[in-house]
User: Which sequence fits this backbone?
C-alpha cells in the first residue's frame, strides 16, 4: 500500500570464491586439471602420432583424445557456472558428484576397447544423467522425469548389449578394434541384428524421433545439467556409430536407413521447435533436429563430419542453455517471426548458399564428386545458412541491411565449419571407415528434394498456415504428463 516499503526477501548472490563447500570447489578444479591434461595429450598426439593402449582393455586414439578435450571443457564450464547456480541448494554436493562421475564415465567410454567395459560405461553414463535430471529428491515431477529417462537409457543399454553380444558371436572378438578388423565375417541375420540394434541404440541416446520424449520430459533438470545433456550426452549416438563404423558400412541399404531416420528427425525437430512456447523446450527440439543431422552425416559415410557437427553443436547448445535466462529479458512478447518472402531476400539467400557450398567444396574436397559428398555439402550449407539467418533476423536491423548481413555471417561460419572438419578428419585418420562415401541413389535425391522444399517452406512461413499441422506438432512434442509442472508450489524444493 501507499507509504509502505516492501521488505527485501531475496539477498545478494553468494560469493562463490569464499562460500562454496569443499566438494564443489575440489571437483571443479579437478575437471579443469583433466582438461589441461587432455590438451597436453592431444598436443602429443598431433606432434608424435601413434596411439596408446592397454591391450584388450583400452585404446587411446585420435577420437579418444579429441573427446577428452571436448568433454572436460564442457564439464569444466558447467561446474564453474554451477558454483553460483547451485549455491545454497541442499543438492549442491550431489549435483557436483554426479557431473564429475558423468565426466569420468564418458572419458572412459571413448577410451574403452573391450566391449564389456564399453557396455558398462554406456549404462553408467545413462544412469548418471538420469540422476542429474531428478537431482531434486523432493520434487515429484523431477523424479518422474528421471524415471522416464531411465527407461529409455536402460532400453538403450539393453539394445547395445544385444549388439555387442551378436558381434562377439559372429567375429569371436572381444574388443572394438578386433571387430573392426573382422568385417569380412559380418553378414547374414546375426550381423543384421547387431547393426540394427546399434542404430536403435544411437537413435535413443541422441533423442531422435520417435525416441525424443525423454529429452522433452527432462525440463526439471537444472539448467547446467541440461547444458551438459544437450552439449555432451546426446552426442553419444554419433560416437557410437563412429566407433562401429566398420559394422554399419557393410551394407549400403542400412546406410540409406540411417540417412532416412536422421533426415526425419532433422526435419521434425525443426517443425517441433516452431510450436514451443518456452526457451528450454525450443532448445530441446532444436537438439532433436541437430542430432538428426549428425546421424544423417554418418549415414552418408562421413563419420568425421558427424563428429565435427556434434562438437560445434555442443558449443552452440551449451552457450544457449547457460544463457537461457537472459533470452527472456531480451525478447519482446509482441515480436513476430520474420520471413524472407521478398524477391530480394530469396535471391540473396540463394546466391549466398551457392557461394557457401562452393567454398565448402574447395576447402574440404567434399561435393566435388558424384557421391554422397554432394548431399553432405548441401546439408552443411542448409544448417549453417539457417543458423546465420536466425542470428541476423533476431537483430533490430532494417530488412535491407539484414539481407546484406546474411553473407557476412554465413561465409565466415561455413569457412570455420570446413576448417574444423578438415582438422578433425585429419586427427581421426587412423580410425577405420572415418570417410566412406556412398553412391548416389534415387533415395538420396528424394531426401535432398524434400529438404530443399521444407527449408523454403519454413523460411517463408508456409508451414505456419495449417492449423492441423500445428495441432499435430503440439501433440507430438508433449512431454510425459507426469513430468509437467502445474502449480507454482512445484518449483519450491524446500
Assistant:
Amino acid at each position: 500500500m501507499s507509504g509502505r516499503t516492501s521488505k527485501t526477501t531475496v539477498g545478494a548472490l553468494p560469493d562463490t570464491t569464499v562460500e562454496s563447500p569443499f566438494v564443489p570447489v575440489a571437483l571443479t578444479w579437478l575437471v579443469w586439471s583433466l582438461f589441461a591434461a587432455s590438451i597436453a595429450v592431444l598436443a602429443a598426439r598431433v606432434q608424435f602420432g601413434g596411439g596408446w593402449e592397454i591391450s584388450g582393455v583400452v585404446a587411446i586414439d585420435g577420437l579418444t583424445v579429441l573427446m577428452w578435450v571436448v568433454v572436460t571443457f564442457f564439464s569444466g564450464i558447467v561446474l564453474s557456472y554451477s558454483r553460483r547456480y547451485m549455491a545454497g541448494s541442499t543438492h549442491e554436493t550431489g549435483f557436483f558428484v554426479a557431473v564429475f562421475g558423468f565426466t569420468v564415465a564418458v572419458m572412459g567410454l571413448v577410451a574403452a576397447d573391450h566391449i564389456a567395459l564399453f557396455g558398462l560405461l554406456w549404462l553408467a553414463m545413462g544412469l548418471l544423467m538420469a540422476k542429474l535430471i531428478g537431482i531434486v529428491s523432493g520434487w515429484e515431477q523431477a523424479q518422474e522425469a528421471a524415471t522416464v529417462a531411465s527407461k529409455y537409457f536402460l532400453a538403450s543399454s539393453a539394445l547395445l548389449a544385444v549388439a555387442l553380444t551378436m558381434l562377439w558371436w559372429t567375429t569371436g572378438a572381444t574388443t572394438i578394434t578386433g571387430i573392426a578388423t573382422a568385417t569380412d565375417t559380418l553378414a547374414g541375420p546375426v550381423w543384421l541384428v547387431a547393426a540394427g540394434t546399434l542404430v536403435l541404440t544411437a537413435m535413443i541416446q541422441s533423442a531422435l524421433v520417435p525416441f525424443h520424449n525423454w529429452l522433452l520430459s527432462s525440463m526439471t533438470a537444472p539448467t547446467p545439467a541440461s547444458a551438459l545433456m544437450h552439449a555432451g550426452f546426446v552426442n553419444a549416438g554419433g560416437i557410437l556409430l563412429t566407433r562401429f563404423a566398420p559394422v554399419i558400412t557393410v551394407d549400403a541399404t542400412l546406410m540409406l536407413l540411417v540417412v532416412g531416420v536422421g533426415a526425419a528427425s532433422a526435419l521434425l525437430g525443426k517443425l517441433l521447435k516452431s510450436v514451443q512456447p518456452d526457451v528450454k523446450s525450443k532448445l530441446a527440439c532444436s537438439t532433436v533436429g541437430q542430432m538428426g543431422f549428425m546421424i544423417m552425416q554418418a549415414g552418408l559415410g562421413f563419420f568425421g563430419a558427424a563428429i565435427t557437427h556434434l562438437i560445434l553443436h555442443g558449443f552452440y547448445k551449451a552457450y544457449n542453455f547457460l544463457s537461457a535466462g537472459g533470452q527472456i529479458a531480451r525478447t519482446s512478447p509482441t515480436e513476430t517471426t520474420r520471413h524472407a518472402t521478398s524477391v530480394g531476400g530469396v535471391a540473396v539467400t540463394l546466391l549466398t548458399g551457392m557461394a557457401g557450398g562452393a567454398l565448402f567444396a574447395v576447402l574440404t574436397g567434399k561435393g566435388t564428386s558424384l557421391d554422397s559428398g554432394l548431399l553432405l555439402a548441401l546439408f552443411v550449407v542448409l544448417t549453417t545458412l539457417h543458423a546465420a539467418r536466425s542470428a541476423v533476423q533476431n537483430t533490430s536491423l532494417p530488412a535491407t541491411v539484414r539481407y546484406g548481413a546474411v553473407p557476412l555471417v554465413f561465409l565466415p561460419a561455413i569457412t570455420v565449419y570446413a576448417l574444423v572438419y578438415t582438422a578433425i578428419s585429419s586427427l581421426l585418420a587412423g580410425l577405420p571407415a572415418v570417410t566412406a562415401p556412398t553412391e548416389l541413389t534415387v533415395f538420396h535425391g528424394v531426401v535432398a528434394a524434400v529438404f530443399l522444399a521444407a527449408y523454403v517452406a519454413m523460411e517463408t512461413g508456409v508451414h505456419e498456415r495449417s492449423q492441423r499441422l500445428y495441432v499435430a506438432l503440439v501433440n507430438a512434442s508433449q512431454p510425459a504428463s507426469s513430468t509437467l509442472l502445474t502449480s507454482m508450489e512445484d518449483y519450491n524444493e524446500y
